[in-house]
Structure formats: C-alpha cells, structure tokens
Amino acid sequence: MNDLFDDDANAPRLLPLGAQALLLRGFALAQAGELLRCINQVAQQAPWRHMVTPGGKAMSVAMTGCGPLCWVSDSQGYRYADRDPLSGQPWPAMPAALAQLAQAAAQQAGFADFTPDACLVNRYAPGARMSLHQDRDERDLTAPIVSISLGLPAIFLWGGATRGAPAQRVPLRHGDVVVWGGVDRLRYHGVLAVAPGMHPATEDCRINLTLRKAL
Ligand code: SIN
Ligand code: FE2
C-alpha cells in the first residue's frame, strides 16, 4: 500500500489524484454529525430507493437526494429531475451547510464559486457497489464534482479517460472529500463492494454525497 494512504498523523491531508482532482482527507470530519442529521431529514421526505438502470436492473446502492435537481435513473434512462418520481414533489431543499462545505472543498481544489444545484445521496449496505462510470449527465461540465464519504470505509476506483484504462484503488474513509473537475471531470470512477462492518456514525453502512452543478 502506498505510504500516502497510511493512517499516521503526518500523512498529507491533500492528495492529488490528477491535474485537477484532489482527495481532501478528513475535510468533512468536523461537520459529519450535522451532515448525517441533514441526510436523515432528507430521507424522511424523499425515502431511500433502489433506482433501476435503463437495462432494468435495480442498483445495489440505495439513493435519495436534495436540491433543486437530483439525478434519477429508470427504464427511460439517466437524467436530472426537479421532482422526486416517487412522490411527485420537489426534492428536499439542499441544506446550506452542505452547499457551503462543497463550495469550500471545491475552492481547495482550485474551483472558485462552485454552486451546486443537485446532491445525490448514496447509501451502501455491505456488498453494495458502484461499477465504473463517468458523471456526464450534467449540462455544465466546467463545474467539478464534490464527493463526501461518511461511515464505513470503501475502496474508490479512480480510473482514466476510458473504461478500460487502469484504475487506482483509493481507500476513502469517514470525512474524506474528493473533488474532480477540469481535465479530470470525465474520469471513470466507481466503488468496490463495501465490506461488512460497524461505524459509530452510520452503523452498518457507508453514505456518499455527490454535489454537482447539473444545469
Ligand atoms: C458516485 O460516483 O456517484 C459515487 C461515488 C462514491 O460513492 O464514492
Ligand atoms: Fe459518479
């Protein structure tokens, strides 16, 4: 394992993953409790669900979201929707603390004035995974993606410009934030199956928040 990813206190907190991609170790740690309270409220209004891919398979990751828009998938394809298809109601509002944290993380990575309009919330039970994909359903590809990890750890697959390019395995832990944009905006990425475990903040799951500017 690469020294950069060791747990010691002297390990660097900012790890470049590309020319315009950065892992900010522990960047969300201080606000993790507040973020999890926000997510619980969001999930009361817009319940967790396993969306179905256009190919008809239920995703292993459970999802909800908040903000003016949220990414959805069904037999019609992938897109952003301004209403929760389950209820027909607008998505819950994006908590200000969440938007501010994402903006601060983006700034650290060199993206000034990131104003997310969509937050997808992913919940990984043990065994849930996300196969390699690009985030490319957003209209504005000049804005970065900000991804916040909470709870159980996972291995993030950080790939290249094509699906077949070799992928780096990056351990992500509670409080870590990854930002990617610019020349790295369309890098393939995914998450290996989450291992069973217990985390004091989330119990038996991993939560990931991805903030995007969709429009
Ligand atoms: C995603 O790519 O949408 C999720 C990434 C993650 O869970 O870390
Ligand atoms: Fe993604």
How is this structure best described in words?
With 215 residues, the protein is α+β, with helices and mostly antiparallel strands. The protein has a domain at 2-30 and 95-212: Alpha-ketoglutarate-dependent dioxygenase AlkB-like (Jelly Rolls, Sandwich). It has helices at 32-45, 96-108; strands at 14-18, 21-24, 62-66, 70-74, 77-81, 118-124, 130-133, 145-151, 154-158, 168-172, 177-180, 189-191, 206-212. It has a seven-stranded antiparallel beta sheet with strand order 1-2-11-8-13-6-3, with helices on one face. It has a four-stranded antiparallel beta sheet with strand order 7-12-9-10, with no helix packed on it. The model has no long low-confidence stretch (mean pLDDT 95). It binds succinic acid and fe (ii) ion.
Give a short summary of the structure.
The protein is of the alpha+beta class and 215 residues long. The chain has two helices and 13 strands, in the order E-E-H-E-E-E-H-E-E-E-E-E-E-E-E.
Question: How do the helices and strands line up, and which of them pair or pack?
Answer:
Layout: E1 14-18, E2 21-24, H1 32-45, E3 62-66, E4 70-74, E5 77-81, H2 96-108, E6 118-124, E7 130-133, E8 145-151, E9 154-158, E10 168-172, E11 177-180, E12 189-191, E13 206-212
The site of fe (ii) ion (FE2) has 3 residues, from loops.
